[in-house]
Amino acid sequence: MRPIILGTMAAFFFAFTFIINRSMELEGGSWIWSASLRYFFMVPFLLLIVYWRKNLKPLIVEMKNNPRAWLLWSIVGFGLFYGPICFSAAYAPGWLIASTWQITIISGSLLAPFFLETVMTQKGPVKIRGRIPMKSLALSSIILLGIILMQVERAADSLSLMEVLLGVLPIIVASFAYPLGNRKMMDVCGGRLDVFQRVLGMTLASMPLWIVLAIYGLFTVGPPSVGQSIQSGIVAITSGVIATVLFFQATDLVRGNMQKLGNVEATQSISVLFVVIGELILLKAALPTLISWTGILLVMAGMVLHSYVSHKGDILTGKKVSA
User: How far from the centroid of its chain's Cα atoms is residue 22's Cα?
Assistant: First the structure.
């Protein structure tokens, strides 16, 4: 249960991304600064945390030992994740981005064959090629159906083809990039680093991308406004630091088990509910319709089932379940 709870808490703080990014776009801010500023602001906070925990030197050694892997998978996991999300905010409302992002529930499960998982045998633990967790995929489909119901009416009434292409396709790219980068970095680290070290390391390794993007922004759209800088700082703390650390901690707890990893990644669907509430309060969005509320209930039901299956699996295998 603990990974599910941590994942749900991460979803709450991730919701700030979609709400604030949409707010910045409505105020005329560029997606370029929404993306790059978040990671610039994350660095000092994470540096302080890792330095205070006396874990900075082991991280530096680890990054020096495998710089190419750190650079590649950090850019995939952070760059190809957050860049497209911010880009989509310029063409689609927050509710569409948040709901489309939930395709990561399916994306994470489909990536299973690209990784090895640990299985206990009579001869001890053995690593085998992962299989697509069909039970997790079925439960994820319930959540996905709920998300579709939540947005189907609004999509039919208010979206143009351009909004669909520029607002949806980048999110699909991000939905594969985020779990792929996260899982690959878990393999690279091999349990030698804690979650704070890994997030800081990935942030630092992705800096070349954000620096190039910021330079491009200076020459094309000019410097960011004070308001966008402040809002980007809020996103950096809530989503970049708190949510990412919580989510990575949750995935670390189930590392090597594709079924449970899929369950944890599915918790991110709950962020749709938080975005709906946030938009109602902060952006004065319209109340969901009856069909949308039906979708919300399906999302919640799917989340409960994911949690139940994970909890039941721990009991049947004799593992201790953390409350």
Answer: 17
Confirm if 150 and 99 have CB atoms less than 8 A apart.
yes
The per-residue pLDDT for range 32-65, each reduced to its tens digit, is: 999 999 999 999 999 999 999 899 999 999 999 9
Does a structural domain hold residue 310?
yes
Torsion angle of the four alpha carbons 203, 94, 230, 239, in this order, in degrees rounded to the nearest 10: -40
Q: What angle separates helix 80-88 from helix 94-101, to the nearest 10 degrees? A: 150
* Cα–Cα distance measured from residue 21 to residue 170, given in angstroms and rounded to the nearest whole number: 15
Integer Cα distance of 141 and 261 in angstroms: 16
Q: CA 231, 43, 92: angle at the middle one, nearest 5? A: 40
pTM over 0.70: yes
> At a CB cut-off of 8 Å and minimum separation 6, what does 3 contact?
250, 251, 253, 254, 260, 263, 264, 310
- Looking at the structure of the chain, the number of domains it has is 1
d(CA 87, CA 3): 30
Tens of pLDDT, residue by residue over 178-219, are 889 988 898 888 889 988 899 999 999 999 999 999 999 999
Query: pLDDT tens, 126-160?
Result: 666 666 667 767 777 787 787 777 666 666 666 66
pLDDT, position 23: 85
First vs last C-alpha separation in the chain: 6
Is 321 within the bounds of a domain?
Answer: no
Range of the domain at 268: 2-315
CB atoms near residue 204 (< 10 Å): 20
- Could you tell me if 208 and 67 are in contact, meaning their C-beta atoms sit under 8 angstroms apart? no
Specify if 64 maps to a domain.
yes
Residue at 30 is within a domain = yes
CA-CA distance, 304 to 72, in Å (whole number)? 35
